[in-house]
Protein backbone atom coordinates (compact mmCIF):
# COMPACT_ATOMS: atom_id res chain seq x y z
CA UNK A 1 0.00 0.00 0.00
CA UNK A 2 1.47 3.33 -1.06
CA UNK A 3 0.33 6.84 -0.16
CA UNK A 4 1.50 10.24 -1.30
CA UNK A 5 2.53 12.38 1.68
CA UNK A 6 2.43 16.02 0.57
CA UNK A 7 4.47 18.15 2.98
CA UNK A 8 5.99 14.91 4.29
CA UNK A 9 9.32 16.38 5.38
CA UNK A 10 7.67 18.90 7.73
CA UNK A 11 7.21 18.53 11.47
CA UNK A 12 3.96 16.53 11.51
CA UNK A 13 4.42 14.89 8.10
CA UNK A 14 7.84 13.44 8.93
CA UNK A 15 6.67 11.81 12.17
CA UNK A 16 3.64 10.47 10.33
CA UNK A 17 5.86 8.95 7.62
CA UNK A 18 7.65 6.93 10.32
CA UNK A 19 4.33 5.78 11.79
CA UNK A 20 2.96 4.84 8.35
CA UNK A 21 6.02 2.85 7.49
CA UNK A 22 5.92 1.02 10.80
CA UNK A 23 2.29 0.13 10.04
CA UNK A 24 3.25 -1.34 6.65
CA UNK A 25 2.11 1.62 4.53
CA UNK A 26 4.75 3.04 2.18
CA UNK A 27 4.89 6.85 2.15
CA UNK A 28 5.97 8.58 -1.06
CA UNK A 29 7.21 11.90 0.30
CA UNK A 30 6.48 15.00 -1.75
CA UNK A 31 7.66 18.39 -0.42
CA UNK A 32 8.93 21.65 -1.90
CA UNK A 33 11.32 22.16 1.03
CA UNK A 34 9.88 25.63 1.67
CA UNK A 35 9.80 24.90 5.40
CA UNK A 36 11.80 21.71 5.80
CA UNK A 37 15.40 20.59 5.65
CA UNK A 38 16.46 17.78 3.36
CA UNK A 39 18.37 16.44 6.39
CA UNK A 40 15.00 15.26 7.73
CA UNK A 41 15.11 12.53 5.08
CA UNK A 42 18.41 11.22 6.47
CA UNK A 43 16.95 11.22 9.99
CA UNK A 44 13.94 9.20 8.79
CA UNK A 45 16.28 6.61 7.28
CA UNK A 46 18.48 6.60 10.36
CA UNK A 47 15.60 6.13 12.81
CA UNK A 48 13.77 3.46 10.81
CA UNK A 49 16.72 1.72 9.12
CA UNK A 50 14.61 1.87 5.95
CA UNK A 51 14.81 3.83 2.73
CA UNK A 52 12.21 6.47 1.82
CA UNK A 53 11.17 7.74 -1.59
CA UNK A 54 11.35 11.52 -1.79
CA UNK A 55 10.29 13.80 -4.65
CA UNK A 56 11.03 17.51 -4.42
CA UNK A 57 7.96 19.26 -5.77
CA UNK A 58 5.24 21.80 -5.16
CA UNK A 59 1.56 20.91 -4.75
CA UNK A 60 0.82 23.59 -7.35
CA UNK A 61 2.71 21.50 -9.95
CA UNK A 62 -0.14 19.34 -11.24
CA UNK A 63 1.85 17.52 -13.93
CA UNK A 64 4.52 16.40 -11.48
CA UNK A 65 1.91 15.31 -8.93
CA UNK A 66 0.11 13.20 -11.53
CA UNK A 67 3.36 11.65 -12.69
CA UNK A 68 4.43 10.74 -9.14
CA UNK A 69 1.03 9.35 -8.13
CA UNK A 70 0.86 7.21 -11.27
CA UNK A 71 4.44 6.04 -11.14
CA UNK A 72 4.03 4.84 -7.56
CA UNK A 73 0.45 3.67 -7.84
CA UNK A 74 -0.69 5.48 -4.70
CA UNK A 75 -4.15 4.82 -3.30
CA UNK A 76 -4.48 7.90 -1.09
CA UNK A 77 -2.97 11.27 -0.29
CA UNK A 78 -2.06 12.62 3.13
CA UNK A 79 -2.00 16.37 2.68
CA UNK A 80 0.19 18.29 5.15
CA UNK A 81 1.56 20.85 2.66
CA UNK A 82 0.72 24.35 3.87
CA UNK A 83 2.12 27.57 5.24
CA UNK A 84 1.18 27.81 8.92
CA UNK A 85 2.27 31.06 10.58
CA UNK A 86 -0.80 32.96 11.75
CA UNK A 87 0.89 36.40 11.96
CA UNK A 88 2.56 35.99 8.56
CA UNK A 89 -0.80 35.04 7.04
CA UNK A 90 -2.19 38.45 8.11
CA UNK A 91 0.74 40.20 6.41
CA UNK A 92 0.78 38.04 3.27
CA UNK A 93 -2.77 36.75 2.82
CA UNK A 94 -2.55 36.18 -0.95
CA UNK A 95 0.54 34.01 -0.50
CA UNK A 96 -1.37 31.91 2.05
CA UNK A 97 -4.49 31.57 -0.09
CA UNK A 98 -2.36 30.65 -3.10
CA UNK A 99 -0.23 28.06 -1.34
CA UNK A 100 -2.84 26.54 0.95
CA UNK A 101 -6.12 26.92 -0.95
CA UNK A 102 -5.13 27.12 -4.64
CA UNK A 103 -2.48 24.46 -3.95
CA UNK A 104 -5.10 22.13 -2.50
CA UNK A 105 -7.33 22.60 -5.55
CA UNK A 106 -4.44 21.67 -7.85
CA UNK A 107 -3.78 18.60 -5.71
CA UNK A 108 -7.46 17.56 -5.94
CA UNK A 109 -7.37 18.10 -9.73
CA UNK A 110 -4.31 15.90 -10.00
CA UNK A 111 -5.96 13.21 -7.86
CA UNK A 112 -9.12 13.32 -9.99
CA UNK A 113 -7.10 12.94 -13.18
CA UNK A 114 -5.28 9.84 -11.99
CA UNK A 115 -8.21 8.30 -10.09
CA UNK A 116 -6.98 8.72 -6.49
CA UNK A 117 -10.11 9.18 -4.40
CA UNK A 118 -9.01 9.35 -0.78
CA UNK A 119 -7.45 12.32 0.98
CA UNK A 120 -6.54 12.90 4.60
CA UNK A 121 -6.25 16.61 5.26
CA UNK A 122 -4.32 18.46 7.99
CA UNK A 123 -6.93 20.77 9.44
CA UNK A 124 -6.83 22.56 12.74
CA UNK A 125 -8.85 23.43 15.82
CA UNK A 126 -8.49 26.97 14.50
CA UNK A 127 -11.58 26.20 12.34
CA UNK A 128 -13.69 26.52 15.51
CA UNK A 129 -12.84 30.24 15.77
CA UNK A 130 -13.70 31.61 19.21
CA UNK A 131 -15.15 28.66 21.17
CA UNK A 132 -18.88 28.97 21.90
CA UNK A 133 -18.72 25.99 24.27
CA UNK A 134 -16.17 23.51 25.60
CA UNK A 135 -15.06 20.85 25.00
CA UNK A 136 -15.07 21.48 21.26
CA UNK A 137 -16.79 18.73 19.32
CA UNK A 138 -16.87 18.34 15.55
CA UNK A 139 -20.34 19.92 15.35
CA UNK A 140 -19.18 23.22 16.81
CA UNK A 141 -19.79 26.06 14.29
CA UNK A 142 -16.91 26.71 11.89
CA UNK A 143 -15.25 30.09 11.59
CA UNK A 144 -11.82 31.72 11.58
CA UNK A 145 -10.06 34.73 13.03
CA UNK A 146 -7.15 35.12 10.57
CA UNK A 147 -6.25 34.27 6.93
CA UNK A 148 -4.41 31.08 7.92
CA UNK A 149 -7.54 29.89 9.71
CA UNK A 150 -9.68 30.79 6.71
CA UNK A 151 -7.47 28.66 4.45
CA UNK A 152 -8.37 25.66 6.63
CA UNK A 153 -12.08 26.55 6.62
CA UNK A 154 -12.02 27.01 2.84
CA UNK A 155 -10.17 23.79 2.08
CA UNK A 156 -12.60 21.86 4.30
CA UNK A 157 -15.50 23.36 2.30
CA UNK A 158 -13.79 22.48 -0.99
CA UNK A 159 -13.28 18.92 0.23
CA UNK A 160 -16.95 18.65 1.19
CA UNK A 161 -18.10 19.93 -2.18
CA UNK A 162 -15.65 17.65 -3.96
CA UNK A 163 -17.12 14.65 -2.13
CA UNK A 164 -20.65 15.82 -2.91
CA UNK A 165 -19.80 16.00 -6.60
CA UNK A 166 -18.40 12.47 -6.77
CA UNK A 167 -19.81 9.85 -4.41
CA UNK A 168 -16.60 7.82 -4.73
CA UNK A 169 -14.49 10.49 -3.06
CA UNK A 170 -13.52 10.28 0.61
CA UNK A 171 -12.02 13.18 2.54
CA UNK A 172 -11.00 12.89 6.18
CA UNK A 173 -10.23 16.18 7.82
CA UNK A 174 -8.13 15.86 10.96
CA UNK A 175 -8.49 18.88 13.21
CA UNK A 176 -5.33 19.00 15.30
CA UNK A 177 -5.30 20.81 18.61
CA UNK A 178 -1.79 21.95 19.71
CA UNK A 179 0.86 19.55 18.37
CA UNK A 180 4.04 19.44 20.48
CA UNK A 181 6.86 17.05 21.35
CA UNK A 182 9.39 15.18 19.30
CA UNK A 183 10.41 11.66 18.34
CA UNK A 184 11.56 9.86 21.52
CA UNK A 185 14.95 9.18 19.88
CA UNK A 186 15.65 12.93 19.98
CA UNK A 187 16.57 12.72 16.28
CA UNK A 188 13.49 14.40 14.86
CA UNK A 189 11.39 17.34 16.02
CA UNK A 190 10.19 20.82 15.24
CA UNK A 191 12.66 23.52 14.25
CA UNK A 192 10.81 26.77 13.65
CA UNK A 193 12.44 29.52 11.60
CA UNK A 194 13.38 32.65 13.54
CA UNK A 195 11.64 33.50 16.79
CA UNK A 196 9.05 30.83 17.64
CA UNK A 197 5.42 31.96 17.83
CA UNK A 198 4.27 28.85 19.64
CA UNK A 199 4.68 28.19 23.31
CA UNK A 200 6.54 24.85 23.41
CA UNK A 201 9.36 25.76 20.99
CA UNK A 202 9.75 29.09 22.78
CA UNK A 203 10.09 27.34 26.15
CA UNK A 204 12.53 24.82 24.63
CA UNK A 205 14.74 27.56 23.18
CA UNK A 206 14.68 29.39 26.51
CA UNK A 207 15.65 26.21 28.37
CA UNK A 208 18.60 25.67 26.03
CA UNK A 209 19.75 29.29 26.51
CA UNK A 210 18.81 30.72 23.10
CA UNK A 211 16.16 33.03 24.63
CA UNK A 212 16.31 34.91 27.90
CA UNK A 213 12.84 34.19 29.27
CA UNK A 214 9.35 33.14 28.21
CA UNK A 215 6.74 35.88 28.02
CA UNK A 216 3.53 34.47 29.47
CA UNK A 217 0.78 36.23 27.56
CA UNK A 218 -1.84 37.11 30.14
CA UNK A 219 -2.28 36.14 33.80
CA UNK A 220 -5.89 37.24 34.19
CA UNK A 221 -7.81 34.77 32.05
CA UNK A 222 -10.76 32.98 33.56
CA UNK A 223 -8.73 29.79 34.04
CA UNK A 224 -7.47 28.05 37.22
CA UNK A 225 -4.13 29.94 37.29
CA UNK A 226 -5.08 32.87 35.04
CA UNK A 227 -2.95 31.73 32.07
CA UNK A 228 -4.23 30.36 28.75
CA UNK A 229 -5.30 26.71 28.59
CA UNK A 230 -4.72 24.52 25.51
CA UNK A 231 -5.05 20.89 24.51
CA UNK A 232 -1.45 19.92 23.72
CA UNK A 233 -1.05 16.66 21.84
CA UNK A 234 2.18 14.67 21.48
CA UNK A 235 3.43 14.43 17.91
CA UNK A 236 3.75 10.62 18.20
CA UNK A 237 0.05 10.35 19.15
CA UNK A 238 -0.85 12.69 16.32
CA UNK A 239 1.14 10.59 13.85
CA UNK A 240 -0.72 7.46 15.02
CA UNK A 241 -3.98 9.35 14.51
CA UNK A 242 -3.18 9.56 10.79
CA UNK A 243 -2.42 5.87 10.57
CA UNK A 244 -5.71 5.13 12.32
CA UNK A 245 -7.58 7.46 9.97
CA UNK A 246 -6.05 5.74 6.96
CA UNK A 247 -6.50 2.15 8.15
CA UNK A 248 -9.66 2.28 10.27
CA UNK A 249 -12.00 4.57 8.37
CA UNK A 250 -13.78 1.62 6.77
CA UNK A 251 -17.30 2.93 7.41
CA UNK A 252 -16.61 6.50 6.39
CA UNK A 253 -17.76 7.87 3.08
CA UNK A 254 -17.81 11.39 1.68
CA UNK A 255 -16.43 14.09 4.04
CA UNK A 256 -15.81 13.59 7.74
CA UNK A 257 -13.91 15.62 10.33
CA UNK A 258 -12.22 14.27 13.45
CA UNK A 259 -10.70 16.15 16.36
CA UNK A 260 -7.22 14.95 17.27
CA UNK A 261 -6.52 16.12 20.80
CA UNK A 262 -6.21 14.60 24.27
CA UNK A 263 -9.31 16.21 25.72
CA UNK A 264 -7.16 17.56 28.55
CA UNK A 265 -6.26 21.23 28.88
CA UNK A 266 -3.01 22.54 30.39
CA UNK A 267 -2.15 26.12 31.27
CA UNK A 268 0.95 28.00 30.15
CA UNK A 269 2.32 27.70 33.69
CA UNK A 270 1.62 23.94 33.74
CA UNK A 271 3.72 23.57 30.60
CA UNK A 272 6.58 25.73 31.92
CA UNK A 273 6.58 23.77 35.17
CA UNK A 274 6.63 20.40 33.36
CA UNK A 275 9.40 21.58 31.05
CA UNK A 276 11.52 22.81 33.97
CA UNK A 277 11.20 19.35 35.50
CA UNK A 278 12.15 17.63 32.24
CA UNK A 279 15.15 19.91 31.68
CA UNK A 280 16.11 19.76 35.39
CA UNK A 281 16.41 23.53 35.27
CA UNK A 282 13.93 26.31 36.04
CA UNK A 283 12.74 27.91 32.80
CA UNK A 284 12.61 31.68 33.43
CA UNK A 285 9.37 33.47 32.59
CA UNK A 286 7.74 36.88 32.98
CA UNK A 287 4.12 37.84 32.74
CA UNK A 288 3.24 40.00 29.74
CA UNK A 289 0.00 41.45 28.37
CA UNK A 290 -2.46 39.16 26.61
CA UNK A 291 -1.61 38.36 22.97
CA UNK A 292 -4.23 39.72 20.62
CA UNK A 293 -6.48 37.05 19.12
CA UNK A 294 -5.86 34.51 21.93
CA UNK A 295 -8.73 32.78 23.69
CA UNK A 296 -8.69 31.76 27.34
CA UNK A 297 -9.33 28.10 26.90
CA UNK A 298 -9.45 25.54 24.15
CA UNK A 299 -9.70 21.75 24.38
CA UNK A 300 -11.15 18.89 22.41
CA UNK A 301 -13.90 16.41 22.73
CA UNK A 302 -11.89 13.63 21.09
CA UNK A 303 -14.49 10.90 21.56
CA UNK A 304 -15.46 10.59 17.88
CA UNK A 305 -11.95 9.54 16.84
CA UNK A 306 -11.90 7.03 19.69
CA UNK A 307 -15.25 5.59 18.75
CA UNK A 308 -14.81 5.48 14.97
CA UNK A 309 -11.06 5.30 14.36
CA UNK A 310 -10.15 3.35 17.49
CA UNK A 311 -7.57 6.01 18.25
CA UNK A 312 -6.84 7.97 21.38
CA UNK A 313 -3.88 9.91 22.68
CA UNK A 314 -1.79 8.03 25.21
CA UNK A 315 1.05 10.42 26.03
CA UNK A 316 0.88 13.22 28.60
CA UNK A 317 2.69 16.42 29.46
CA UNK A 318 5.76 14.63 30.94
CA UNK A 319 6.44 12.82 27.63
CA UNK A 320 5.68 15.96 25.61
CA UNK A 321 8.21 18.04 27.53
CA UNK A 322 10.85 15.29 28.00
CA UNK A 323 10.88 14.43 24.30
CA UNK A 324 10.97 18.11 23.26
CA UNK A 325 13.88 18.67 25.62
CA UNK A 326 15.81 15.63 24.30
CA UNK A 327 15.40 16.91 20.73
CA UNK A 328 16.15 20.54 21.62
CA UNK A 329 19.29 19.74 23.59
CA UNK A 330 20.61 17.37 20.89
CA UNK A 331 19.86 19.75 18.01
CA UNK A 332 19.72 23.30 19.40
CA UNK A 333 20.01 24.72 15.86
CA UNK A 334 17.53 22.25 14.30
CA UNK A 335 18.56 19.98 11.43
P1 LIG B 1 5.58 22.29 8.56
O1 LIG B 1 5.80 23.64 7.97
O2 LIG B 1 6.65 21.72 9.39
O3 LIG B 1 5.25 21.26 7.39
C1 LIG B 1 4.62 21.61 6.18
C2 LIG B 1 5.46 21.04 5.05
O4 LIG B 1 4.83 21.34 3.82
C3 LIG B 1 6.86 21.65 4.99
O5 LIG B 1 7.79 20.60 4.90
C4 LIG B 1 6.85 22.50 3.73
O6 LIG B 1 8.11 22.54 3.11
C5 LIG B 1 5.79 21.81 2.89
N1 LIG B 1 5.07 22.67 1.97
C6 LIG B 1 4.47 23.87 2.21
N2 LIG B 1 3.90 24.34 1.11
C7 LIG B 1 4.12 23.42 0.12
C8 LIG B 1 3.80 23.36 -1.26
N3 LIG B 1 3.16 24.35 -1.87
N4 LIG B 1 4.16 22.27 -1.96
C9 LIG B 1 4.84 21.25 -1.36
N5 LIG B 1 5.21 21.28 -0.06
C10 LIG B 1 4.85 22.36 0.66
O7 LIG B 1 4.21 22.34 9.34
P2 LIG B 1 3.56 21.24 10.30
O8 LIG B 1 3.52 21.80 11.66
O9 LIG B 1 4.16 19.92 10.05
O10 LIG B 1 2.06 21.29 9.76
C11 LIG B 1 1.58 20.34 8.82
C12 LIG B 1 0.14 20.63 8.52
O11 LIG B 1 -0.62 20.62 9.72
C13 LIG B 1 -0.10 22.02 7.90
O12 LIG B 1 -1.14 21.90 6.97
C14 LIG B 1 -0.55 22.85 9.08
O13 LIG B 1 -1.36 23.93 8.67
C15 LIG B 1 -1.34 21.84 9.87
N6 LIG B 1 -1.45 22.14 11.30
C16 LIG B 1 -0.33 22.39 12.02
C17 LIG B 1 -0.44 22.71 13.38
C18 LIG B 1 0.78 23.02 14.21
O14 LIG B 1 0.63 23.64 15.26
N7 LIG B 1 1.98 22.60 13.82
C19 LIG B 1 -1.70 22.75 13.97
C20 LIG B 1 -2.82 22.48 13.20
C21 LIG B 1 -2.68 22.18 11.86
C1 LIG C 1 -0.44 28.47 23.38
C2 LIG C 1 -0.65 29.27 24.68
C3 LIG C 1 -0.55 31.65 24.36
C4 LIG C 1 3.70 31.76 23.25
C5 LIG C 1 -1.55 28.27 17.43
C6 LIG C 1 -2.34 28.65 16.20
C7 LIG C 1 -3.28 27.53 15.81
C8 LIG C 1 -2.55 26.19 15.68
C9 LIG C 1 -1.61 25.92 16.82
C10 LIG C 1 -2.18 25.64 13.37
C11 LIG C 1 -1.53 30.50 24.50
C12 LIG C 1 0.59 31.18 25.24
C13 LIG C 1 2.43 31.37 23.62
C14 LIG C 1 4.48 32.50 24.17
C15 LIG C 1 2.67 32.39 25.75
N1 LIG C 1 -1.77 26.10 14.50
N2 LIG C 1 1.93 31.67 24.84
N3 LIG C 1 3.93 32.77 25.38
O1 LIG C 1 -2.19 30.12 19.90
O2 LIG C 1 -3.15 27.99 20.87
O3 LIG C 1 -2.42 28.03 18.52
O4 LIG C 1 -0.81 27.07 17.12
O5 LIG C 1 -3.24 25.36 12.98
O6 LIG C 1 -3.88 27.91 14.63
O7 LIG C 1 -3.08 29.83 16.48
O8 LIG C 1 -0.72 28.08 20.30
O9 LIG C 1 1.55 27.70 21.18
O10 LIG C 1 0.99 29.95 20.15
O11 LIG C 1 -0.01 29.35 22.35
O12 LIG C 1 2.23 32.67 26.87
O13 LIG C 1 5.62 32.93 23.89
O14 LIG C 1 0.63 29.78 25.09
O15 LIG C 1 -1.03 32.88 24.81
O16 LIG C 1 -2.27 30.64 25.69
P1 LIG C 1 -2.19 28.65 19.96
P2 LIG C 1 0.55 28.78 20.94
From TrEMBL:
Domain NAD(P)-binding residue range list: 4-324
Keyword NAD annotated: yes
Keyword vocabulary terms for this entry: Carbohydrate metabolism, Isomerase, NAD
Pfam families: GDP_Man_Dehyd (PF16363)
The reaction(s) this protein catalyses: UDP-alpha-D-glucose = UDP-alpha-D-galactose
Cofactor(s) this protein cannot do without: NAD(+)
InterPro entries, per database record: NAD(P)-bd_dom, NAD(P)-bd_dom_sf, UDP_G4E
EC assignment: 5.1.3.2
GO molecular function, one term: UDP-glucose 4-epimerase activity
Pathway: Carbohydrate metabolism; galactose metabolism
Keyword NAD: yes
Self-association state and partner proteins as the record states: Homodimer.
Family per similarity comment: Belongs to the NAD(P)-dependent epimerase/dehydratase family.
PANTHER family from the UniProt entry: UDP-GLUCOSE 4-EPIMERASE
Protein name: UDP-glucose 4-epimerase
Organism this protein belongs to: Thalassotalea nanhaiensis
Amino acid sequence: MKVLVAGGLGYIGSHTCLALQKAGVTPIIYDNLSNASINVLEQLKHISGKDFTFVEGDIRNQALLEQVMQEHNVTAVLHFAALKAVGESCEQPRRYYDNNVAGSVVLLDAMANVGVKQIIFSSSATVYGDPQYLPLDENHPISATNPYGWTKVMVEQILQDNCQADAGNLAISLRYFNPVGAHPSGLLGESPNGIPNNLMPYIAQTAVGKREFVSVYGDDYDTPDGTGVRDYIHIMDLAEGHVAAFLNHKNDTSFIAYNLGTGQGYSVLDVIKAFSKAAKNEVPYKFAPRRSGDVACNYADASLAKQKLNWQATLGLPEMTEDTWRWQSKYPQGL
